[in-house]
Every structure is written in structure tokens, then in C-alpha cells.
Amino acid sequence: MTTGEPDAVPARPITVTTDTLLADASLESVPAEWDAARAVTAIYTAHYRSLVRLAVLLVRDVATAEEVVQDSFIAMHAAWRRLRDTEKALSYLRQSVVNRSRSVLRHRVVVDKNAPKPAPDMPSAEQGAISLLERAAVIAALRTLPARQREALVLKYYADLSEAQIADTMGISRGAVKSHTARGVAALRVVLELET
Amino acid sequence: MTAQERDFEDLLSRVLHSATDRVEPVGDGLTKIRERLSEPWLNRQWWLLRNEFMVLGWFAVVRCESLVAMVRSAATSLAARAAGDGAAAAAGNGARLRRLAAAVGGILAAALGGIAAWISGKGAGGQRRSPGPVINWLRPALAVAGAVVLVVAGVFALGQIRQTIVSLSDGAGGIASGTSSQSTGNRVSPGRGGGSVTGVGPLASQAGSSARTGTDHRPGAHASSSPCASSAPSPGPSPSPSPSSPPPSPSPSPSPSPTPTPSQSATPTPGPTTSGAPPSAYGAVKYRTTALVCTQPNPTSSPSASPA
Q1: How many domains does chain A have?
Q2: A126 and A92 within one domain
């Protein structure tokens, strides 16, 4: 085991493809001998944006999503020595983001009870207005789902995770993942059909 | 999976991706992360500890607010009852102590639940696979230690409260006895036998047992007057000490004004008397005293003694 000196580690080609889907990134290239700061930098470069987008779908707020992801990075940095399998650092981050998003939503429930309802998204007159409407409708319908169903759908259809990965991220069984996903899709369809 | 379902899933995936394509992180997140990581370890730990103890303190304050209010009301009612019915007050003490114990138990359970939730919440934040260095357990250990301190303080406070309640009830009896000793000879002479207060004084009416009031004509009963005994003795002597038919006294003995103490809410239940009063007690003053002192039950002398 090395001492974690950054200079002792061979340089790793970091591809700054921030649009990389989370499911594709197994981050097998993060060696175990890397120190926490270097790992944080590497993972941040590769996956920060995707993680923020994942959090945005869960917490519906970019600033909060960024805070959630940054907190997750800091937690990963603190727990780096406890991670037996550093190749699963991204999985750790993803799970942390989902859990912290849950906490944010839990705290927000009380605030949302008294907050004024935001104005509905107005359709733009630009090109692609139909797709905008469609997107707004789907996002609005997604927000009406229970948290677990929403998480399962986001992790499946945005992060393109497998059922096993979703189960690992959400901390539930694969059967529960199937159940949440199926119920979420059915509820979305019902909501969208009602709107149309 | 039907084609329709597949289309819907494609639509969902496309919409989710297109909805988040516009999202761009604001600012340099890595700089923020590094700034937060570069903070001294002690600062970070202190900040986290302070937040957790603030939550714990808030929780304790909220929980103890009802407890303090309950204790205050219990003390007030006990003070009122202490001058009245001792037996009923003792029963109330038991009930209130049981309620206090239940409240403290609830607090402890909630605190332990909160600590457990906190610990599990910390564990749910990520994969905790190895115990890690000892320093990682510092904050949970300190939080648990704080909870233990709170519990111990609560136990001591409960003991103090109990002692206060007991001493309050005892003190009421003591005050009654002391007052009675002071009032001896000042108010009613032993030769008068306290007949003036027999069944006509306000205390006698509060004692609620006019039949029993005045049956005991032992001299010196006036000496065992309660703190409110200054109102009890009326100058008008009662001509008939018979309990069965209290004759109308021509004197203005039932003066309504001198009823100052809150202990007037004594229940008419005659408790067992004690030997704190001299054996020559008369009338209502006697019963008042016995009602005050009967927080320490002593069935040796009963007010239902046969008239002398």
C-alpha cells in the first residue's frame, strides 16, 4: 500500500465528459491508493454535473442540488479511508446524493405547506413549444409522485441504472424497485392522460 | 412489455434528459468543496457538534416545557391541597408522581430514539463498512454523553421535586402546628373551650362536618388552629356545643371576611387526626388542624371521637 502521495501515482487520463451518464461510470480507474483530495477532484471533474442534474430532478432546485452534491463530496472525502472498495466511490456518491435529497425534501415539506404556489410554467412561443409543454407536463406529473417512486423513476430513466444499482442506491430490495417503478410509471400515465 | 409501454418509457427518458440538459452548475463547486475541506478539523467538528447540541437542547427545552408546567401546576394544587385534605393530597401526589415518571420516561424514550435516528441517519448518508478510526466516534460519543447528562439531571430534578412536594405538604402541617401553638391563649381561653367556633365559624363550615364539629370539647382545641385560624375564632360564644343541632348564635361569629388563606378549599373528608394538636381541641379549629396535619396519617386519634 502506498502512502497516497499524488506524485507516486501514475497520471490518469481524465476525460472531461461531464455528460457521461452515471450508469456508465464505474470509476474503475480511481485507484485505491489515491488520497481523498485527488479522488474528489477526479470524480468531481467527471461526474459533478451529472450528479447535480440527478439531484435537480429530486429536489427541483439547482442551488440546493449543488449543495447536496457538494455535501456528498465532502462526506465522501471524510469517509474515504473507510471505503473498502474505492472503485465504488461513485456509487457512494450517488447514494449520498439520494439520501441527502430525501432529507432536503423532508425538511422542505413544512416549508412548502405555507409557501405560495409558484406560477405555472408558461408555454413559450418559441420553436418546440409542444415539446416544452410535454416536458413540463411530465416533470409536473413526476413531482406529484411519492418520493420513492420518483427516485426510482429518475434513477432508472435518467441515470439509466439497473435494478440492482437502484436497489443499492435507494437501500431497498430489487423487488421493491420493480414495484416502485411500475407504480410510478402507472401513476405518471394516469396523470398525463388526465391532463390530455 | 407492450410497444405502448416502451414508447412511454422512451418518452420519459427523453423528457428527463432534456429537462436536465439545461441545468448547469452555478459557480465553481470544486472550489467550494475545497474551501470547506480546508477548514480546520476542529472547526468542522465544533460546528457539527454545536448544531447537534442545539437540536438536542431545543428538543429538551420543548419537552421540558410541558414537564415544568405540569410540575408547577402540581405544586400549586398540592399546596392548596396540603392545607386541606391530606389523604386526597397524598393520592394526588402519587398520581402526579406517576405522571411525572411517565413524562420522564417519554422524554428518555424520545431522546434515545432521536439519538438512534441520528446515528442511523449518519450511517445512511453513505456506506459505513468499517469502524474507522476512533476519532470518528467522538461526536456520537459526545452526543450520547450529553444525553446521559440530561437524563441524570432530570433524575436529580425529579428527586428534588419530590422532596419539595413532600416538604411542602409537611411544611403546611408544621405551619399549622406552629400557628396553633402561638395562638394558644391569644384567641380563646381554654375555659371557653372554643365553643365560639363550634359549627359556626367559617372553618367549621369549610370542614364540612358540622355534625362532628364541636363534638370534641376537649380544652385547648383552639390551640391547634390552622394558619387561617385568625379568621376562625369568633368572639361570640356558642351556647350549645351539641353537634346535632347547632343553635343559631346571636354573635356575628360566622364573619365571612376573615378567610384569607387558599387552604379554604379543604374537602370535608375528615382525615385521621394526629397528635400534633393538644388534646383539648374544640370545634372547627380542631378539624382544621387535623385536616392540615393529616398528610402524615396517624389514625390513633380520630375526630369522630365521642363527645366528652
Answers
A1: 2
A2: no
Amino acid residing at A100 = R
Give the chain B residue whose CA is nearest to the CA of A53. B20
- Domain range for residue A152? 121-196
- 3-state helix, strand, coil split of chain A in percent (to 5) is 70, 0, 30
The sign of the torsion formed by the CA atoms of B277, B283, B287, B288 equals negative
Distance from CA of A70 to the nearest CA of B (A): 6
Q: Is B130 in Cβ contact with A92 (below 8 Å)?
A: no
pTM comes to: 0.43
CA–CA dist B291, B226 (Å, integer): 9
Type of residue at B293: V
Alpha-carbon Rg of chain B, whole angstroms?
35
pLDDT in tens, B131-162: 445 566 777 788 888 888 888 888 888 888 88
Average pLDDT, chain B: 60
Are residues A71 and A133 located together in one domain of the fold? Answer: no
Identity (one letter) of the amino acid at A132?
A: L
Per-residue confidence (pLDDT) for residue A180, from 0 to 100: 94
Q: Would you say B302 and B286 are in contact if contact means Cβ atoms under 8 Å apart?
A: no
**CATH code, domain with A185:** 1.10.10.10
